[in-house]
Specification:
157 residues
């Protein structure tokens, strides 16, 4: 039970998110049918807070002495992600958001995707659906990859 909880909390951590939570849980031998919903929920839980409040908090803190550099980094990451989405997507912005979150590359998870959608003033409901679909895709890719690696090295099934 504790490893499900650890997986849940790993999925909430920016930058690693479900990309680390799924491999961690599978390496611990957790049931994928329970692990996936737990990790998806953990990854999606912060999304509404990020969408509605992160931009405001980051804007407020970017000029502060101790936290300013980190907050500016986060804002720049969101702006760059948003610009990249808009540039490549055109009218298919929500599909681009789905793929941005769903392809498990560093810095392209639910946190960055949600911040980018907030900065671009995208529709909340459509953004959440695109991000959730992306999280499911990223979790599936990571799960299949992890299962293959674990099988190759003789751990698990």
């Amino acid at each position: 039970m504790i490893n499900y909880l650890i997986s849940f909390f790993i999925a909430m951590v920016p930058l690693v998110e479900i990309r680390l939570a799924i491999p961690y849980g599978l390496a611990k031998g957790l049931d994928p049918m329970i692990l996936y919903p737990v990790c998806i929920l953990g990854n999606m839980l912060p999304v509404p807070l990020i969408f509605f409040f992160a931009r405001k908090v980051l804007e407020w803190g970017k000029d502060k002495k101790i936290i300013g550099k980190f907050f500016s980094f986060c804002l720049n990451k969101g702006h760059k992600g948003g610009a990249k989405l808009q540039e490549k997507a055109g009218r298919g912005l929500y599909w681009a958001l789905f793929l941005f979150v769903g392809i498990p590359l560093p810095g392209t998870g639910a946190w960055t995707g949600t911040l980018a959608s907030s900065i671009l003033d995208m529709d909340f409901k459509k953004s959440v659906l695109a991000v959730m679909a992306g999280v499911v895709l990223a979790g599936t890719i990571m799960g299949l990859g992890t299962a293959g690696v674990l099988s190759l090295i003789g751990i698990g099934g």
